[in-house]
Amino acid sequence: MRVAVALLALFGATRALAAGGVDPALVGDHYRVDHPRLPHPDEAYLAWLRTQPKLLRDLDRTRHHGAETNLFLLYLATREPKYLAEIEALAGDEMKGRWFHRVDVLAVAYDWCYADLHPAVRARMLGRIVDITRRADDYYREIRVSPYNDVGYIRLHNAPFIGALVAYPDAPEGEPLIRFAHQVLFDVYLPVWQQVIGGGGGWHEGITYLRKGLGGVVVPTLAAWGYATGRDLFAENPWLAELIDYPIYTTRPDFTSLRMGDDNTPELTWFEGLGPLATVYDHPYGRDWLKRVGHWRDEPTSTVWPWWPPALEEPALRPVSELPPHHYFRGIGLVTMRSDWSEEATFASFRVGDHFWSHQHFDSGGFTLYHRGALAIDSGTYYAGYDSDHHYGYAMQTIAHNCITVTDPADSYVSTKASMLRWSARLLGGPSGLLGSVATKMRWLAARLDRQNLPNDGGERRVGSGGYNLSPDDLAHWQAERDDYEMGDMLVVAMEPTFVYCKGEVTAAFTNSKSGNFRADYRARTRRVRRWLRDFLYVRPDLFVVVDRVSATDPRFAKRWLLHTINRPRIVGGRAMVERAETVRHLYTWMRGLTHTTDKGRKLYQYDGRLEVVPLLPEGARLTTVGGPGHEFDIGGKNFNLDKRDHPLRVDPTQGPDEPGSWRIEIAPPRLQADDLFLTVLITGTASQPVDHRVRQVEVEAGEMVGAEVAQGGEAIALLFNRRLDDRAITSELRYRLAWSKATDVQLLFGLASGQRWRVARREGSGGVEVDLTPVGGDGEGVVMADRDGILRLAGSSVMAAKAGVERQRGEATAGGGR
Predict the structure, then answer these.
(1) Residue range 311-329: average pLDDT?
(2) For FRET with 774, which of 6, 403, 543, 580 sits at 20 to 30 Å CA-CA?
(3) In this structure, what are the phi and psi dihedrals at residue 405, rounded to the nearest 5 degrees?
(4) d(Cα 192, Cα 359) in Å, to the nearest integer?
(5) Do the Cβ atoms of 557 and 443 come closer than 8 Å?
C-alpha cells in the first residue's frame, strides 16, 4: 500500500513538473513560467507614463550608470528601436561593476523585454545570466558565505536569487540554480534574519554594514521571489517591517547614529533598503524619517528594485515624534531610550545580548549616554581599519566600552611566532623590498597571531570574526556553537512614560564551559567571573542609575567600573564631571535643520553637554582617570593608536562625526575581595547652565536592597534595587530612611517579588521620611502591589500609587519593541 501511495505521489509530481516545466517543491504551484516573471510595470502605469513628457526625459537622462531599469522602462513605454538596441547591446558587455551585481541588469533586461529580443540575443543574454549566477553560487560555496556577515550581501547581492528565477525553467542549467537559491533563501537567510531582526528589528553589524550589505538585498530578493512564485513573502514575514525602526531609534538627537561595533558612517542614519521596506509595508513613520534625512523619493517611479507599483498620489507620512521614546531590539539585546524627540533630548543605549560573529565588539552590558553631546561613549574608531593594531588591540576589547572588567594576572598568552614573523619580514626588506609580497603576508600572519597575544584588559571572552571563530554557515551552525556566542540575557525590560528599567545577566560574556581551559582555547580566557548582574535605570529626563553585582572566582582579581569620555573628566569631591562643549564639524546638521548649527557653510555644530558621575558604592572607592596624549587607548601602559598602515591616529574632538575619545573614568573598590556592589548615579545636563544635584545613598535599615536618593531644588526621588547576588526576588520586610524626600515624592523599588502586595507606612519628621513595607497576602488600605516585573512605585499615597499604576499600564500599551 505504501509503495502504491509513493508511486501515485511520484506520478503526480511528475505530471506537475511536466505540465508547467517546473518542480512545485521548489517554486510552488503558481510559478510564472512565462515572462515577465519578475515584478514589472503593468500596462495601466505605462499608459500613464506616456502622458508624462518630463518624467520620460528624466528617465532618458538617467538610463545609464547604474540606473538601467530606467532604460527598460523607457523602452516599454515608447517601444523606440534605439532603446531596444541599447538593451540588446547589454548581452555583449563584459561584466562590469562590483562583484556579481551585473546579473541584476541582465536579468531584468531579459525578463521585461523577452518577447522583443532577437532570439540570438535572448539566448546569449540567458547564457550570460546562467554563467554569472553559477559563478555566484560557486563563490558562495568557495568562501563559505555566512548569513551573519556583510561579505555575501555586498559581493553577491541578489545574484543567486534573481539569476535563478530568470533562468528557471528557460535554461537546462536553471534547475540546480533554483534549487540552490531556494535552499539559501529559505534554509539559511530567512531563519537567520528572523533570529536577529525578529522581535523589535535591529541588525548586529550596525547601520554601516546594514546600509552596505543586508539592507539592499532583503526587499528585492523577497519581492522578486514572491512575484515569480505567487507568494506574499512580506505578509509571511511581518517582522521584517521592524527593521524600519532600527535607524529611527538608534539615531541620536544630533542626527548621527549610535556608535556600536564597527561603524564608520555614523552620519548616515538610513540604509539602502529603508525606502523599499517603508513602501512594501506602507510605513508612514519610515517615510517621514526618510524625508527628514533627505532620502525619500517623491517622483512617481518605483522605490523598489526592480519594480513596485508607485504611489501616484502623495503617500501618508506620520512624524516619528508620535512614536514612544524608547525601543527594545530583542534580537540583538539592545534598548534605546530618550527623553523626547527634540534636539535637546537626552539619549541612551544599553545592550546585553548574544554575539552574531560579525563586526561586533566584546561589550555586552555596555551603555552610552548623550545630551547635547556624547558624554559616555563607545570609544575607539573603525577609521583605523579592520586589521589595525587599534581595532583588534583596543576598539574591539571590553576595556574600550562602558563595562566592568575583572583582571586575572594569569589571563595572558605569549607567542614568539608573531615577533619572529615580523623580524623575518624586516629581513626581506619589508613590503617595498624585493620579496615585498612575502613580507606583506608575513606581517599579515603576525597580526593574526597578535590576536592570541592581546593585552590583558580584564574583559569579556573573545569570539566571532577576526580569527576567533569560523563564520556560522546557518542558524543550526550558530546554535551548535551557542556556548561561544551566548554573551548574556536581558532579564527585565520595562519601558514606561516616566522611566526605562533594564536588568541584564552578563555572566556568560565572561564565563562559558571552556573558560579556564586557557591553553587549549585562549578565546574563552581564564575563569574569572562567577556572576555579573547589571541594573540600568533611566528616569526621564536626565537621571540614570547603574547597579552592578559582581562576583569574581578569586578575591585577588581586580575589578574596574569604566566610563569613556571624549574630553578629560574633572574629579571634584569624589565625583567626576564630564563636558562636551566643542564646536564640531558635522556633515549633515545643516541639511537636517538642527538649531545648534553655527555655520552652515563650514558645517559646524555646537555641543553643550555635561555629565555628573557620582559613585556611591563601593564605599571608599578609588575614582581615577586614564587618557590624554600618548594614553588615549591605553591598556597596561601600551597605547593602541596605530591604524592598519601603522600610522598614529590623530584624535581631534572638533572633527566629527568620528568620536574615538581619549579618556576614561575608572572606579575601583578600595580593597580586593570576591564580591563587590557598585552603585553609580549619572546625571546629564548642559555645560553652559550647570545644575547642582544632591545625591546620597539611601539608609536601608531592614531588607536586602540598596538605593540612591537624588534631590534638585525642592524635589527628590528615591530609587532602590535588589542587592542580592543570587537575584532572588525580595519578599521580606523593608525599612529605609530618606533624608530629603517628602512623603509625596516618588520612590521606585526594583527586584521585588512579582505580584507581591505590600502595606506601606510612612513617618515624616524633621530628619526626613522613614518608610516601612510589610508583605501582606491581600488588599486593604495602604496596600500596593509590585507589578509583573517586580517593580513597585510609591507616590506618597495610595491614590497616587494607583495613578502611577494606570500610567504604567499605558506605558506598557505603547512601549515600542514590546517586552
Answers:
(1) 90
(2) 543
(3) -120, 150
(4) 16
(5) no
Q: Residue 474's closest CA among 185, 216, 676, 680?
A: 185
CATH 2.60.120 is the classification of domain 694-814: no
702-727: pLDDT as tens digits: 999 999 999 988 889 999 999 999 99
Question: Is 303 in contact with 312 (CB distance < 8 Å)?
Answer: no
- Pairwise CA distance, residues 819 & 808, whole Å: 13
The grid coordinates of residue 148 equal 551573519
pLDDT class of 339 with cuts at 50, 70, 90: very high
Q: What angle do CA 747, 752, 756 make, to 5 degrees?
A: 100
SS3 775: strand
CATH architecture of 326-413+454-686: Distorted Sandwich (2.70)
Peptide bond into 169 cis (omega under 30): yes
Please state the three-class secondary structure of 706-743 as a single string: EEEEEEECCEEEEEEEECCCCCCCECCCEEEEECCCCC
Taking the domains of the chain in order of start, what are their residue ranges? 22-254, 326-413+454-686, 694-814
Beta bridge partners of 626: 664
Angle between helix axes 159-167 and 119-143 (nearest 10 degrees) is 140
DSSP notation for 35-64? SP-S----HHHHHHHTT-HHHHHHHHHTSS
In degrees and rounded to multiples of 5, residue 666 shows phi and psi of -120, 130
β-pairing, 529-539 vs 768-776, is unpaired
**β 663-668/489-495 pair status:** unpaired
The three grid cell numbers given for residue 328, joined into one nine-digit string? 527594545
Per-residue pLDDT at 629 exceeds 80: yes
Architecture of the domain whose range is 22-254: Alpha/alpha barrel (1.50)
